[in-house]
Automatic annotation (TrEMBL), chain B:
GO molecular function, one term: lyase activity
Pathway involvement of the protein, from the record: Porphyrin-containing compound metabolism
Family designation: Belongs to the Ahb/Nir family.
Name under which the protein is recorded: siroheme decarboxylase
The protein's enzyme class: lyase
Siroheme decarboxylase AsnC-like ligand binding domain location: 64-146
Positions of the Siroheme decarboxylase NirL-like HTH domain: 7-52
Catalytic activity, EC: 4.1.1.111
InterPro entries: AsnC_trans_reg2, HTH-Siroheme_Decarb, NirdL-like_HTH, Siroheme_Decarboxylase, Tscrpt_reg_AsnC-like, WH-like_DNA-bd_sf
UniProt xrefs under Pfam families: AsnC_trans_reg2 (PF17805), NirdL-like_HTH (PF22451)
Length: 165, 163
């Protein structure tokens, strides 16, 4: 799905392209291919799903979305697919996962994350999700400090990065 | 942080539909009716203010060999939270790490090639942090319904008064 040029291209761009008229020129020169080919390769990687999305990574806290709410829900296992699908449809929800439980100790099996303007806004949106799905057993956990946040899929630096120079 | 209306339009567009073109900022400008210079100037401003981290490809974890992931919750004594968070942050496999206002106050994700590697990292974090197993929840992912970290910059007001 990916050749070595693709891997190097992703490595060169995953930390950000420049804010200049021709932001793909740098990668093109390093890879000794044309800008058109850089763009064509990125388009293909996006089409095949290697690249989930190409665009801005935004810091929600700086974009007026200061409340990060992780909601843990305990829903009946035979209804989780339906409830998960409804929650995933909501534009308020950025992440929605089913996770393993720890029986007798931690029964929450569905996890959603919402980025909201404030806690009141978050509670209002969570209550709407609860009403829409009938899921009533939940806890809202707000983040109070961000220690790390970055994409989980990364191509690690080549062992000898200088070989391209 | 107040965003002006033209910033909002631009943010929505670059988040949802960044043009893959040799001159992407010119294409954006054509779509939005802004000169290329204004597009670059506004994005530079948003970047300086920290609203935008960068413009980049976001990779699908599975396509780069990540087959196992988990969410870990820890009950950490308040006075040790920064120390333990720093240990957790040392691992490249940890992508997110937050303090949350709950009895379980430290929440982080680990993504690895397989379950074995993942458990190895978790065990090392447990050993180094000296948080007892009874104060840790390991919550592996079973199924992903959605992962789409995009935000709405427009029509926010339409939501007011709803719900």
């Amino acid at each position: 799905m990916m050749d070595e040029v693709d891997r190097e291209l992703l490595r060169l761009t995953q930390d950000g392209i420049g804010l200049e008229e021709r932001p793909f020129l740098h990668a093109a020169r390093r890879l000794r291919i044309s800008e058109e080919e850089v763009v064509a390769r990125l388009r293909r990687l996006r089409q095949t799903g290697v690249v989930r999305r190409f665009g801005t990574r935004i810091n929600p806290r700086k974009a007026e979305l200061v409340a990060n709410a992780m909601v843990v829900w305990s829903v009946p296992s035979d209804r989780i697919a339906g409830i998960g699908a409804v929650m995933a449809e909501s534009p308020d929800v950025t992440h929605c996962y089913e996770r393993r439980t720890i029986p007798g100790h931690w029964e929450y099996n569905l996890y959603t994350v919402l980025h909201c303007r404030d806690r009141e806004d978050a509670h209002r949106r969570v209550a709407a999700l609860s009403r829409a799905t009938g899921a009533v057993d939940y806890r809202v956990l707000f983040s109070t400090e961000e220690f790390k946040r970055r994409p989980s899929g990364r191509i690690e630096p080549a062992k000898e990065p200088e070989r391209l120079q | 942080m107040q965003l002006d209306p033209r910033d909002r339009v631009l943010l929505q567009q670059v988040q949802d539909n960044f043009p893959l073109d040799p001159r992407p900022y010119r294409v954006l400008g054509e779509v939005l009716g802004m000169p290329e210079r204004e597009v670059m100037g506004r994005l530079t401003g948003l970047s300086r203010r920290g609203v935008i981290k960068h413009i980049a490809p976001i990779l699908e974890p599975g396509s780069v060999g990540i087959r196992a992931s988990t969410l870990v919750a820890m009950r950490v004594p308040e006075e040790r939270i920064h120390e333990v968070a720093a240990i957790v942050n040392e691992y490249d496999s940890v992508s997110h790490n937050y303090r949350r206002d709950d009895d379980y106050n430290l929440w982080f994700t680990i993504a690895a090639a397989d379950e074995e590697e993942l458990l190895g990292i978790l065990e090392e974090i447990m050993r180094r942090s000296m948080i007892p197993p009874g104060d840790i929840l390991n919550l592996p992912m079973v199924r992903r319904f959605k992962l789409d970290v995009r935000f709405r910059f427009l029509a926010e007001d339409d939501d007011d008064g709803r719900g």
